[in-house]
Amino acid sequence: MPLSPRCCSNAAAAGATDYTPTLNFPINDSREYIKLLTTPRAAVILYGMERMTRAMHFSPGEQLKSLGCRPGDLAGVAVLCGRRQRADFCLERLENVRRVFSFAGLTFHTGTVDGVRVSVGNAGMYADDTAISMELLIAGGVRTFIRVGSCGALSGKVAIGDAVCPLRALRGEGVTPYYADRAYQPQADETVSRVLMDGCAGLVGVHAGTVWTMGALFREIPEVVNPAIEQGALAVDMVTAVVLTLAAVNGCRAGALLTVSDNLITGEKGFSAPVCRRTEQTLIDAAFSSVAALSVSAT
Question: Which of 55, 152, 224, 239 has the smallest CB count inside 10 Å?
C-alpha cells in the first residue's frame, strides 16, 4: 500500500528513504489493513474505541454568546433568504437596522417594518448551512420563520415566474434524519402559510402543495426526480424541508414562498428572467407585510 506523506515523518514527505512510518488504524479494522502493509519497518499503533459522553460538542446558545449576540437581539419573526443578494435586498426594506451576528458566511440583522421588529439574513443556500442558521436563530429566540427562496417546478402547469407555497415537504437531503425519524413528513404552519398566501393573492400565480428538498443539483434525472413526483411533489428546492423540520421539532412555526425559476418537466430555465425578479420582489413584499400579523398571532 503506498504511504502518503500524512502517514510518514517530515523527512519521508520530503523524499528521504530512511524512515519508519507510523500508521494509525481503528482496532476493529487492523487485521484488514495490516495485511496490506508493504513496509516491514512500519510501526502500527492500535487504538481502542472510545465514546463521547458530553451532551453536546457545539451548543447554539454558546456559539451565539461568543458572537456577541445578546438576549433580545433577534426578533420573534425572521425572514430567511438563501442568496446574500436577496438578503441585502430585504435589508433595504428595514428601518433601525442593526447587525446581530455573522457566522460561517451567514449574517443576520434586526430592524423594524412598520414599527414591528423582524430579523433578516442569508440563512443558507443548502441543507447543512440552513440547519446551522435555524439552530442559532432558535437559540436566539426566533419562533416564526418565513423562507423566501426559489424552486424548480415539477409540473408543466407551473410557469416560470409563478410562486409556490409549500404546505409540506419531502425529505431528500441528508440533514433532517439527524433530527427526525425517516418516516416523518414536515408540515408548514397553517397560519403562516395562509398569511403569506394572502399577502401575494392576486399579484402572482400561487401554487400550494408539496415541495421536495434534495441536495444533488446535478442528479436531477428522471430516475431520481420521478419518484418524488409520484409522491405528490409540485416543486424541488434545497432548503425547505430543513426549515420546516427544525422549526417543528423545536416547537416553532415556519412557512415559505418560493419563486419558480426553472421547470424540470419542460426544461425551461428562467433564473435571471425579468418575470422571476418581479415575482421575487412580490414575495419579499408579501413576507414583510405578513410580519405584523404573525408577530401578533405568536403572542
Answer: 55
User: In this structure, is the dihedral angle defined by the CA atoms of residues 212, 289, 293 and 142, taken in order, positive or negative?
Assistant: positive
Looking at residue 217, the DSSP 8-state letter turns out to be G
- 275 Cβ contact list (under 8 Å, min separation 6): 160, 161
Q: Which 3 state secondary structure label does DSSP give 71?
A: coil
Q: If you search the block for the grid coordinates 420521478, which residue do you land on?
A: 226
* 51 inside domain: no
CATH code at 286?
Answer: 3.40.50.1580
pLDDT digits (tens, 9 = 90+) for 157-173: 999 999 999 999 999 99
Residue 18 annotated as catalytic: no
Answer whether 71's CB lies under 8 Å from 141's CB. yes
Beta-bridge partners for 98 = 110
Catalytic residue among 181, 189, 262, 285: 262
pTM of the prediction?
0.84
Q: Which domain holds residue 191?
A: 74-297
pLDDT in tens, 121-161: 999 999 999 999 999 999 999 999 999 999 999 999 999 99
Contact 94, 112 (CB under 8 A): yes
